[in-house]
What we know:
Catalyzes the reversible oxidation of malate to oxaloacetate. With 308 residues, the protein is α/β, with parallel strands linked by helices. Helices cover 41% and strands 22% of the residues. Strands 3-2-1-4-5-6 form a six-stranded parallel β-sheet, sandwiched between helices. Strands 7-10-11 form a three-stranded antiparallel β-sheet, covered by helices on one side. A three-stranded antiparallel β-sheet has the order 12-13-14. The radius of gyration is 19 Å and the shape is globular. The site of oxaloacetate ion has 10 residues, from helix 8.
Amino acid sequence: MKITVVGAGAVGATTADNIIRRELAEELVLLDIKEGVAEGKSLDMYQTAALLNFNTKPVGSTNDYEKTKGSDVVVITSGLPRKPGMTREELIGINAGIVKSVTDNILKYSPKAIIVVVSNPMDTMTYLALRESGIPKKRIIGMGGALDSARFKTYLALEMNVSPNDIHGMVIGGHGDTTMIPLTRLATYNGIPVSRFIAADKLDKVAADTMVGGATLTKLIGTSAWYAPGAATAMIVESIVRNQKRIVPCSVMLNGEYGQKDICMGVPVVIGKGGWEKIINLRLSDAEKASFAKSAEAVRNMNAALDA
Ligand SMILES: NC(=O)C1=CN([C@@H]2O[C@H](COP(=O)(O)OP(=O)(O)OC[C@H]3O[C@@H](n4cnc5c(N)ncnc54)[C@H](O)[C@@H]3O)[C@@H](O)[C@H]2O)C=CC1
Ligand SMILES: O=C([O-])CC(=O)C(=O)O
């Protein structure tokens, strides 16, 4: 198994670190356009092997795609992060060009790779990568819902003062401050609806905090987050390489599911060795369906900007 992570910035390096610690591949290539950065971070990470007891060797590359040849899974994190006060959507101008050229280069050397897109605005970047590459849709997975769901579970756990490990819940829809849909109705504390433990107004606040989870961290840190994004991305990679068939909300191409077509958005999918293998069709309430349709409209408008 060979995995490449493109972009050795905060999210890319954290993703790579999680992947090698869990030994998800024999070889991990970390690639960046900045001279020496990927090589330096790879060496730094490899120096933890003797301390943490793992055997996956990270290899750095300054924009040399030859080194990525034959990758089974490629994660794209290259691109600008937002600054406080910005939306993810404002990154489209620069990041679309980066994601397009990276996708072309990756597929030249790894035509069979499964691609996990992280760069923002993620739903539109996933759509772009799929449209540009023309590879089968099941091989392109956008990472957003995994992270948003982890934030949702964390806010629920904090509110209830319980372990996040006992909370189940999903966030679907777009990966944007106003487009994500935390499914409060379906969230449970070990199978028991969370509404039994949290008052309605508190539950609404948890949902609102989840939606602006990324913006809150961006304001605190000065750039966007990386620990949870890196862990969420590695979790998806693990489900692919270990064929775990986990159900994870991911941005995938819809063809009539959830009433949408020709758009990548977050819905629960089964992730295994083929990429996303199946979409799980949730029975949404009328209000949830309306939120999904509204979210799709915003994502579609963003996609239209690709051709503007
Ligand atoms: N989908 C999600 O849930 C999340 C998405 N993000 C997004 O991930 C992206 C990366 O975020 P950070 O790692 O924090 O940014 P960063 O600035 O720390 O790292 C980005 C890296 O990409 C590299 N890069 C730029 N152009 C490149 C190219 N053509 N080829 C190879 N490498 C190139 C840069 O040199 C830099 O090292 C941003 O767009 C951010 O918004 C971040 C967190 C979560
Ligand atoms: O907030 C951002 O811009 C980065 C991101 O997508 C997240 O952390 O959810």
